[in-house]
Amino acid sequence: MDVFKIAAFSDGNSGGNPAGVVVADKLPNADEMQAIAAEIGFSETAFATAQDNSWKVRYFSPETEVPFCGHATIALGAVLARLRGDGRFELSLNDATISVEGTQNGGLVSATLQSPSTSSVKAKRELVQSALNLFGYRAEDLDNRIPPSVANAGATHLILALSSRELLSKMNYDLDSGRELMHTAGLVTISLIFAETEQMFHARNAFAVGGVLEDPATGAAAAALAGYLRDLDWPHNGAINIIQGEDMGMKSLLKAEIPAAAGSSIRVSGTARMI
Predict the structure, then answer these.
(1) Are residues 191 and 81 in the same domain?
(2) Are residues 141 and 45 in the same domain?
(3) Which of 114, 135, 163 is the last residue of a domain?
């Protein structure tokens, strides 16, 4: 069993979201994977084993298993490119089949994941109010061009668009209260965003259910946001760029390509660096 530590969606040779990647001849049982993820201590660890022409993959945070993790998938793509050479790798998750591509570029690896299909629904008023209360925001702090939504691209996220970058920079909340809200609502993260332009977004993702206050880069949430913007008929022109982790001192860069077909997979790409 080989353990790797990778920063996914890095800003060149700095920043990015650290993820663990464990490549094994056979996946350990769930309790063992949970313990390994807790020991590694990053927000997510991907566990992978080769099977036929694909890879079986499961994802664990320090506290729980999650159905899909974007930055850990990018990290896995970087590891597989290092181990097997540049290429496309088919991944079999618990509830979906996706792929990741990895291309080596000196000390960095460029990686692109193909997300599960996307969906979005209007967020219920009670959930939105609970989230606003959690963060200390008011309804008038929201950007009414992008109404609150519960969006999914392999994992479920509440998306709240704020009306200014300053409001986003002030994000803070009680971890235990956030964990309770997210567990109750079935959310993996609460994604707070600010639209600097129609194609450039700043994001912060509360990840209390994973045992951390905030995630520096969240590929699954980026895919969910991109799918929601497509459902919203937002003028994305086929792609959006997301800056995340800046307020944590871990600047991360994500790109999401958005095909026209409703519900179709989103391509999320970035670079990854070895830690």
Answers:
(1) no
(2) no
(3) 114
Split at pLDDT 50, 70, 90, the class of 106 is: confident
Give the Cα separation of 165 and 163 in Å (integer): 7
Let me know whether 170 and 130 are in one domain: yes
Q: Which domain holds residue 131?
A: 119-265
- What's 142's DSSP letter? B
How many Cα neighbours within 13 Å face the side chain of 50? 8
Mean pLDDT of the chain: 96
- What's the angle, vertex CA 75, arms to CA 114 and CA 149, rounded to 5? 50
pTM: 0.93
Please state the separation of Cα 121 from the chain's center in Å.
Answer: 19
Residue 275 covered by a domain = no
Q: 147 and 78 in one domain?
A: no
pLDDT digits (tens, 9 = 90+) for 185-216: 999 999 999 999 999 999 999 999 988 899 99
Give the CATH number of the domain where residue 220 resides.
Answer: 3.10.310.10
**CB neighbour burial string for 25-48, b if at least 16 within 10 angstroms, e if fewer:** eebbeeeebbebbeebebbbbbbb
Residue 89 has pLDDT above 90, yes or no: yes
Asked if pLDDT for residue 107 goes beyond 90, the answer is: no
Supply angle C-alpha 267, 258, 225, rounded to 5.
Answer: 85
